[in-house]
Description:
The structure is a single chain. By secondary structure, the chain is of the alpha+beta class. Helix content is 39%, strand content 22%. The chain has a four-stranded antiparallel sheet, covered by helices on one side. It has a two-stranded antiparallel sheet with strand order 5-6. Helix 2 (22-29) packs across helix 3. Keywords: DNA-binding, Transcription, Transcription regulation. Residues 3-64 form the HTH asnC-type domain. It holds the Pfam family HTH_24.
Amino acid sequence: MTIDDHDRRLMHLLRDNGRLTNQELADLVGLSPSQCSRRRIALEQSGLILGYHAHLAPQAEGTPVMGMVEVRLFNQTDKAVEGFNRYVLNEPAVRDVFKLTGDYDYLLKVAVADLAELSQLLTRLSSLRSSVSNLRTSVVLERVKENGVGFEKDAAG
C-alpha cells in the first residue's frame, strides 16, 4: 500500500488518540468524512494500523510495580528460542518483549502487583534452564513517558 501525507497524518492522530471520531479525523486532516473513513479502513486492512487500545493506569490493573528484565539465552538454537518465546507469550506479567542486539538477547517489560510477585517471576524465568542463561533486572521508579505520552507531575508532587 502506498501512503501519502494524509495517511501519515491519520495514523499520527489515531496513535495519539484512538477515540477520535471519523468526523473529527476528517476535520483535522482536511478530508471529507467518507474519504477519511475509506483511508482509515484501508490502513487497518493493510496492517499499518494494528489496533486500538485503552492505556490503563497500573493501579486499575493491580500491577503498580514495573520492571525491565534483560535476558541472555544460552544460545540461539531453535529449542532455546522456542522455549523462551513460548514462556513469555503465555506469561501475563510480561507485557512487552523486544529482541535486541548487544549484550542481552531480549528486553522484557513486566508489570506485577508487588516485589514478591516480581521475585517469583524472575525465579520462573531463571528456571527455563534450557533457554535462559542470565537475567538483569531493573525496577521502574517513575514513568516519565510511555507509549509516546508524557506524564506531568501535579503541584503536589
